[in-house]
Amino acid sequence: MAGTIDAVAEATDRPFGVNLRTDAADIDRRVGHIIAAGVPVASFAQAPGEAVVKKLKDAGVVVVPTIGAPRHAEKVAAWGVDAVIAQGAEGGGHTGPIATTLLVPAVVDTVDIPVIAAGGMADGRSLAAALAFGADGIAMGTRFLLSSDSDVPDRVKAVYLETKLTGTVVTTAVDGVPQRVINTEVVARLERSGPLSFLRAARNALKFRALTGVGYRQLLSEGLAMRRSLGLSWAQMAMAANAPMMTKAAMVDGHPEVGILPTGQVAGSIDALPSCQEIIDSVVAEAAEVLDRLAQPVLYEAVQHP
Questions:
Q1: List of domains in the chain
Q2: Is the pLDDT assigned to residue 296 strictly greater than 90?
Q3: What is the pTM of this model?
């Protein structure tokens, strides 16, 4: 993380943010480094604790957590976060049960800070719809992942492009917490196995460890951190420990056979890999066109009844 922050800072003088996992074993060190490095924005894949928010806010860092329910938005808003990303059930990775179309307006009605809509966002129509719901903008994960600028290996992108709208599943079999992933054979096998005993889960974890190349100490550290933060069983902990490394092995190292490919449902509607600039330009242009069209007066023809 520290090396990536340095590389981005050297490449641009524009503001940028760092996204964090709140269940990381070294979250305090990571937050401390973000502050020391002068990173202006910290976002979170899950809602951070109050102490983490206070530490960042006291240092002048803009804090933007992802939430999946109105009550979560209300809670973090009370802690002083600057905005929230309201991610609906269509979103990729760890996600909640409420659809984006219901979650976003409910969150907008609950808090008085900016709300960013996520989950199923991929084009200008998405942006126009989010604005209609009262959001201040959108966040797109899968759409930017499937771009020509993305560092995700081409063979992994190919799996995403082949995925249908029905080709994803929300599962707890990977790490004990609901997350949306591509329904690969590995995921299907985990789903079929049902509740895992600790010994069977440990065997699976060690098998995945061999694929990901992670050390035993890191494996144990990851698992214990997740067990503490998420209240996992020992069997869930054994699998959860390897989940981030399994994702890295697929998404970074280019081994889709590992089988953990987080994605939003919107992957099923994406069939091309434009650049990030092309994506942004097309989203803005299409949203403007949609909003202009909706602003036009609608003429109704009077119907004469005999």
A1: 2-140+274-295 (3.20.20.70), 154-265 (no CATH)
A2: no
A3: 0.83
